[in-house]
């Protein structure tokens, strides 16, 4: 029995010793690509942020390494119409405001990188028809807002909505995100979360009038920022934008600094981030916005 | 279709008829134990025809002469020859004596020749001798781990027992113990299989060219047959290893007509580790053990009628108990908490073999199989304040599992050595238990309401029915074929699925040493296993097909050849191509941990394919025996909503696998053995890079944030490091007064290769590292056979 005890002790010691990490997988050995970020619409200049893809070993503390002074050529229906102007911090602006139903293509050239090309268009604007304010039997989410719109038939439509307060303080005004929640069947249970975006498609109401309801928190204090005009935006977004934001939503709430740990523990199946950029990564997509507001005095 | 089938069977049958036929039939068994011998040869040299015994040791040989010279042989046994003068059909039961000298060249020839001549391909028979002598982890002989050394069979991870056959998943193997399906064949989270080798008689793995009598899974059939029990005298063995002890006892009951066998195994990890755990935490009691128990009784009513009763019970149990006391000036709080986790298989079977006439063998069986998984906790808190005692008892219990009751009848009709007809039917009543939770909270405090609730998924009841017909026919001297059809159907929740599964295997002899083989088989599977881990977890959930989740099906084509190099060695090469449809996979971002409320919404359905080539060189006889198995394969999956619809490598896609197993008899009382394995690392997914996120709101507000997102490129585009390992063992045998003593010792992972078991993120150095859990590990095992 003594022999068995000795052997068992040896086995346990070996098992403890074995928790070593003999192999390293190198992260920095990648050919970096251009990452494009642009959601363009018909009420402002096209803004495009261009950065470098980072390796997993790059420590992203402040910002991704921007790509400055690249050549960003913009096409409309395959004809060159503009070269975006570089400002700073990797941000480029077009010299025109995009229109609906034109296919815009961007081609970004920068020495040391493969060309990045992407195209998309602004989808047809779907307008908010009505906005109704109701009282709600909830201590915190004390109002219910209902908006209605008519979804066009025969095409697949994709949406996003957002709710903001226009805040004022002395001479300054700014947008402040509202606190709201919804359990709309198209969106599912959704609680306001600044890192997620409530997107939905017309699978359940294609070609029909649709009413979307959400519960809103409105501060009691009259001086609060969360009073006054509340703006509700309904965005018609392109399929590319929908797919990108869907993957963004899936990865964002769960993953953070612990992504790799969670993943290696088998807790999560991987979520790839959608891209429509050929030769690079990121998103270049169009949207159109319909806005309505309600006053809480 | 029906007409063609009818005329085909009629044509086959007519080929076999002649005017004056006599049939010799019976069982072939071991003289010493009375154990029936599976795959023993019966051969007539004059006619150059032969048959082999079936899974129950039965043979039937029809000749058109009144005098015949027959030889009965089996590997490791002395050949017996009989000259028979026949006037009518005759029943002859043969007993063969074991031959320890291993110089029986004819037996070796017959064994190799029967493999050469069989139309069946892609079959691996695991020799029990090798199984018991090859070195293994902790010295615990393991059927599944030894099968992983065969070509076409991959392991899930270092040290684990999971089987991944020709690109298939772990759920695609039908594992039968004496004809009963075992759903969870793993102990200790997949490191050991549930089969106690002392009670096993025969192990056969079929990877392709499936005969029609088998079905219900896509990738393989593992048919394990238990011993029947010694009919001559009481025999047994005891075994003590590093982590478990086992015993086996077999013998006759009253007379040679009834015998029994019982074997059991239990780990003593809990007992041996208790002092170590006590040192770590005085209040905690942590324990883990597994056991298995196998029993069988068989009774011979007559030479034509036998009844078998068998059972298997196996259980794994983990508990963690903790008692805690918090005492202050005004109060005393006592907390007792207990967590537990366990899973178990219970099976039972009743089988009746009956021979109608001398050519028709029947097997009727009723079986029961139950797999249960249970986890839960109890938490009892008692708080004493002054004279008042407040009690609060909370408990949670989660149950899941699957239960089958089945009936089966098989017939084997052997009108001539050139023709065998098999037909039969099987019915299974499934009860799926996808998970029910019971939560209770009782308190003597009035402000805490009592809780007693049950929630989770309802049981799902399903019925599975299959019928088959299969013919094996020799056409002339060179061609042999096995053709069959299986029809299966499944009924669940008002939905009815059915499928036709044709099976064809053909063999062509080219000379006396070479045969060419080809096969085609269609398989259907009506149950799925929901799993997302690399190890075989008891939490893996068996679920039936539904409206949304269709049956899995596969089509496999294989071609190959067998060449007998000499009287002791043979080499076989096979290539295969397999397609699989309606496979399931967790959706991106989903996992077991996201809950079971709506499991159909958490999965994606897609397809897969696998192709490869396998080389198998084996030497089965002589002082040195063993094999070399090499597999080159490629396996991919494709799901519409995973990896953007692009194909990606299967997690267990391994391009190269090389396994070498050798046993050498140094002396009569010493043998040494070694295995060396090499395999390409498993595929896995990890982020390729980081990209900036484009948060829509912030973007619209004029600010583009730069919190990183992880950019996953293609799924499973990374590879773990390749793994290789050498194991070495030596067995010492000594004949003692009351039996035979065997000391087995050896070393697992001789050169201490740190094979990757899983990946870990090193946050300090921001890098992934692979962690190994099995370094060089010695083992020792003591066994006494009496």
What's the arrangement of secondary structure elements?
The complex is a heterodimer of chains A (297) and B (786).
Chain A: H1 2-17, E1 23-25, E2 34-40, E3 47-52, E4 71-76, E5 79-83, E6 85-86, E7 91-93, E8 104-109, E9 116-120, E10 128-135, E11 143-150, E12 158-169, E13 172-177, E14 180-182, E15 190-191, E16 199-201, E17 209-216, E18 228-237, H2 239-251, H3 259-264, E19 281-296
Chain B: H1 2-16, E1 22-30, E2 41-44, E3 49-52, E4 58-63, E5 67-73, E6 80-85, E7 90-91, E8 94-96, H2 105-117, E9 123-125, H3 128-133, H4 143-147, E10 153-154, E11 164-165, E12 173-177, E13 180-181, E14 186-187, E15 192-193, E16 200-206, E17 220-226, E18 235-240, E19 244-253, E20 255-267, H5 269-280, E21 284-302, E22 305-327, E23 331-356, E24 360-385, E25 388-416, E26 419-443, E27 451-456, E28 460-475, E29 479-492, E30 495-510, E31 514-525, E32 527-530, E33 541-544, E34 552-564, E35 569-586, E36 603-619, E37 624-639, E38 648-649, E39 656-667, E40 670-679, E41 683-684, E42 689-692, H6 696-700, E43 708-711, E44 718-719, E45 723-735, E46 740-748, E47 758-762, E48 767-771, E49 777-785
Parallel strand pairs in B: 1-7, 1-8, 12-17
Antiparallel strand pairs in B: 1-4, 2-3, 2-5, 5-6, 9-16, 10-11, 12-13, 14-15, 16-17, 18-19, 18-49, 19-20, 20-21, 21-22, 22-23, 23-24, 24-25, 25-26, 26-27, 26-28, 28-29, 29-30, 30-31, 31-34, 32-33, 34-35, 35-36, 36-37, 37-38, 37-39, 39-40, 40-45, 41-44, 42-43, 45-46, 46-49, 47-48
């Amino acid at each position: 029995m003594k022999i068995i005890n000795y052997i068992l002790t040896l086995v346990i010691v070996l098992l403890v010793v074995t928790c070593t990490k003999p192999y390293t997988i190198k992260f920095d050995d990648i050919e970096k690509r251009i990452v494009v970020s642009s959601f363009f619409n018909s009420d402002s200049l096209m803004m495009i942020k261009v950065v470098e893809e980072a390796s997993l070993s790059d420590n992203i503390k402040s910002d991704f390494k921007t790509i400055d002074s690249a050549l960003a050529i913009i096409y409309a229906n395959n004809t060159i119409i503009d070269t975006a102007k570089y400002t700073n911090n990797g941000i480029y602006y077009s010299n025109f405001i995009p229109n609906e139903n034109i296919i815009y293509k961007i081609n970004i050239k920068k020495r040391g990188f493969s060309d990045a090309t992407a195209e998309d268009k602004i989808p047809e604007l779907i307008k908010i028809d009505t906005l109704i304010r109701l009282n709600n039997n909830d201590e915190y989410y004390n109002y219910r807002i209902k908006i209605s719109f008519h979804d066009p038939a025969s095409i697949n439509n994709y949406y996003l909505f957002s709710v903001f307060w226009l805040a004022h303080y002395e001479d300054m005004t700014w947008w402040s995100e509202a606190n709201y929640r919804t359990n709309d069947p198209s969106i599912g249970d959704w609680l306001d979360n600044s890192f997620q975006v409530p997107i939905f498609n017309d699978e359940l109401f294609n070609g029909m009038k649709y009413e979307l309801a959400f519960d809103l928190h409105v501060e009691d204090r009259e001086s609060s920022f969360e009073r006054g005009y509340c703006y509700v935006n309904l965005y018609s977004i392109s399929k590319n934008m929908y797919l990108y934001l869907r993957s963004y939503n899936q990865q964002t709430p769960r993953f953070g600094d612990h992504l790799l740990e969670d993943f290696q523990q088998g807790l999560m199946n991987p979520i790839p981030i959608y891209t429509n950029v050929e030769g690079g990564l990121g998103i270049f997509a169009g949207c159109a916005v319909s806005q309505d507001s309600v006053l809480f005095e | 279709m029906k007409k063609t089938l009818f005329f085909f069977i009629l044509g086959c049958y007519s080929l076999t008829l002649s005017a004056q036929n006599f049939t010799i039939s019976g069982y072939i068994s071991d003289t010493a134990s009375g154990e029936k011998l599976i795959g023993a040869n019966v051969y007539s040299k004059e006619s150059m025809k032969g048959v082999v015994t079936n899974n129950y040791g039965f043979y039937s040989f029809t000749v058109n002469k009144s005098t015949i010279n027959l030889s009965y042989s089996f590997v490791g046994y002395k050949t017996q020859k009989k000259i028979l003068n026949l006037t009518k059909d005759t029943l002859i039961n043969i007993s063969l004596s074991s031959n320890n000298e291993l110089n029986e060249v004819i037996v070796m020839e017959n064994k190799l020749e029967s493999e050469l001549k069989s139309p069946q391909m892609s079959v691996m028979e695991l020799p029990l001798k090798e199984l018991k002598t090859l070195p293994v982890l902790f010295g615990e002989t393991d059927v599944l781990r030894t099968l992983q050394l065969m070509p076409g069979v991959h392991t899930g991870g270092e040290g684990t027992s999971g089987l991944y056959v020709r690109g298939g998943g772990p759920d695609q193997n039908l594992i039968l113990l004496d004809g009963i399906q075992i759903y969870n064949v793993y102990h200790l989270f997949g490191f050991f299989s549930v089969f106690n080798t002392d009670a096993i008689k025969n192990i056969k793995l079929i990877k392709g060219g499936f005969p029609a009598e088998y079905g219900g899974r896509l990738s393989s059939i593992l048919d394990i047959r238990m011993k029947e029990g010694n009919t001559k005298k009481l025999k047994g063995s005891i075994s003590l290893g590093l982590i478990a002890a086992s015993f086996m006892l077999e013998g006759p009951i009253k007379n040679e007509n009834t015998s029994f066998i019982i074997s059991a195994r239990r780990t003593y990890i809990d007992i041996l580790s208790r002092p170590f755990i006590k040192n770590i935490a005085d209040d905690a009691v942590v324990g883990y053990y597994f056991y298995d128990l196998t029993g069988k009784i068989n009774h011979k009513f007559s030479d034509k009628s036998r009844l078998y009763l068998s059972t298997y019970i196996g259980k794994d149990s983990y508990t963690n108990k903790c008692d805690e006391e918090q005492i202050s000036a005004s109060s005393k709080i006592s907390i007792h908490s207990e967590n537990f986790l366990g899973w178990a298989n219970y099976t039972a079977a009743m089988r009746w073999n009956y021979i109608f006439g001398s050519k028709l063998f029947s097997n009727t069986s009723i079986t029961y199989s139950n797999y249960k998984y249970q986890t839960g906790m109890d938490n009892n808190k008692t708080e004493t304040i002054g004279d008042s005692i407040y009690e609060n008892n909370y408990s949670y219990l989660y149950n899941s599992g699957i239960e089958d009751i089945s009936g089966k009848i098989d017939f084997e009709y052997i009108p001539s050595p050139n023709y065998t007809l098999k037909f039969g039917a099987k019915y299974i009543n499934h009860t799926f238990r996808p998970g029910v939770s019971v939560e209770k909270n009782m308190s003597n405090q009035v402000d805490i309401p009592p809780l007693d609730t049950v929630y989770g998924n309802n049981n799902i009841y399903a019925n599975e029915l299959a019928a088959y017909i299969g013919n094996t026919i020799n056409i002339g001297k060179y061609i042999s074929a096995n053709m069959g059809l299986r029809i299966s159907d499944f009924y669940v929740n008002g939905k009815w699925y059915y499928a036709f599964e044709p099976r064809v295997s053909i063999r062509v002899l080219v000379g006396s040493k070479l045969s060419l083989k080809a096969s085609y088989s269609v398989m259907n599977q009506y149950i799925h296993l929901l799993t997302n881990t690399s190890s075989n977890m008891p939490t893996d959930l068996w679920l039936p097909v539904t409206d949304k989740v269709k049956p899995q099906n596969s089509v496999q084509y294989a071609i190959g050849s067998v060449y007998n190099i000499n009287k002791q060695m043979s080499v076989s090469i096979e290539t295969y191509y397999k397609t699989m449809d309606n496979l399931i996979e967790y959706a991106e971002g989903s996992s077991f941990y996201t809950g079971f409320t709506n499991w159909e919404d958490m999965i994606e359905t897609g397809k897969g394919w696998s192709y490869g080539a396998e080389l198998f060189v084996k030497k089965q006889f002589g002082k040195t025996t063993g094999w070399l198995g090499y597999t080159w394969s490629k396996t991919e999956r494709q799901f519409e909503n995973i990896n953007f619809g692009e194909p990606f490598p299967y997690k267990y896609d391994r391009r190269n696998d090389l396994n070498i197993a050798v046993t050498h008899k140094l002396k009569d009382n010493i043998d040494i053995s070694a295995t060396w394995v090499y395999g390409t690392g498993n595929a896995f997914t990890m982020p390729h890079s980081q990209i900036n996120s484009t948060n829509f709101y912030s973007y619209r507000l004029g600010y583009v944030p730069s919190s990183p997102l992880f950019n996953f490129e293609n799924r499973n585009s990374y590879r773990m490091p390749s793994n290789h390992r050498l194991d070495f063992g030596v067995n010492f045998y000594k004949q003692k007064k009351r039996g035979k003593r065997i000391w087995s010792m050896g070393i697992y992972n001789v050169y201490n290769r740190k094979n990757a078991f899983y990946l870990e993120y090193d946050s300090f150095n921001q890098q992934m590292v692979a962690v190994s859990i099995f370094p060089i590990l010695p083992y020792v095992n003591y066994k006494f056979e009496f």
